[in-house]
Design goal:
The chain has about 240 residues and is an all-alpha fold. It has helices spanning about 5-35, 40-45, 50-60, 65-75, 80-90, 95-105, 110-120, 125-155, 160-175, 180-200, 205-235. The chain has two domains: about 5-175, no CATH class; about 180-235. It contains eleven helices and no strands.
């Protein structure tokens, strides 16, 4: 990939990279407090690259959860990546398997939202998308390692960092409000999240809400296409 590709990726992903810095620092500090060494934090960020899952892992370790329970919860929390990857696959039909493996490994919610919008509304290539992913990935990895180092030397109250993650996702959601369908799906996902959290009292409720809202949005979109086909046929 040439210099321009990296510059294009940096131009659209730098706000996410800046948002990753406080989150990554907080995650690294929390992981260190839960018993991870700095090298373990590095390898976890390189191999897992899932901020919410890493926060959850640290919290579950502090609560005394077993390894199988943590692995299972990380699996369910990240199952949304199947949906994200599926929706992105149409843009990578001619890509090689090694390319897709690297892209898939570096795919995260924020990079997904930005790249999907770029593919849909702008001229965007697979290499620009990969550069975007990798830049966000490196920002997260470096931030968590620095956070672990800070946590090993100083003590901080990182409660406020929880709100940074929420603010980042709200900003990404607003950027995606480009149609009535997206707004409807977003409202349904939010409503279901609240209801299911009250019923289940577990973070898996968020995953279920996202899947149900996505399926409903898919059904609405297909029904809309069918209605258009019927109108065209009648004409």
């Amino acid at each position: 990939m040439n210099k321009k590709v990296w510059q294009d990726g940096l131009t659209i992903i730098y706000p996410v990279m800046l948002g990753y810095i406080p989150l990554g620092l907080a995650c690294g500090m929390l992981l260190y407090d839960s018993g991870f060494t700095i090298s373990a934090i590095l390898f976890m960020s390189l191999l897992v690259f899932a901020g919410a899952a890493q926060f959850m892992t640290a919290s579950m370790i502090l609560m005394g959860a077993s390894i199988p329970t943590i692995v299972l919860m990380v699996f369910f929390l990240n199952i949304r990546h199947l949906l994200m990857s599926s929706s992105m696959s149409k843009f990578f039909k001619k890509s090689s398997i090694p390319f897709i493996l690297i892209y898939s490994h570096t795919l995260a919610d924020e990079a997904y939202a930005i790249n999907y919008n770029q593919f849909k509304n702008h001229e965007w290539t697979e290499y620009q998308a990969l550069a975007t992913n990798i830049l966000a990935y490196l920002s997260w990895v470096v931030s968590t390692v620095i956070g672990g180092w800070i946590g090993s030397n100083w003590m901080f109250d990182i409660t406020v960092m929880n709100y940074v993650l929420i603010a980042l996702f709200i900003a990404l959601l607003i950027n995606q409000l480009v149609s009535k369908l997206v707004i409807i799906v977003g409202l349904i996902a939010g409503g279901l999240s609240v209801i299911l959290m009250e019923l289940l009292h577990h973070n898996i409720a968020l995953v279920i809400a996202a899947i149900l809202a996505s399926l409903f949005g898919y059904w609405l979109d297909k029904d809309k296409d069918n209605q258009k086909e019927k109108v065209g046929y009648n004409k």
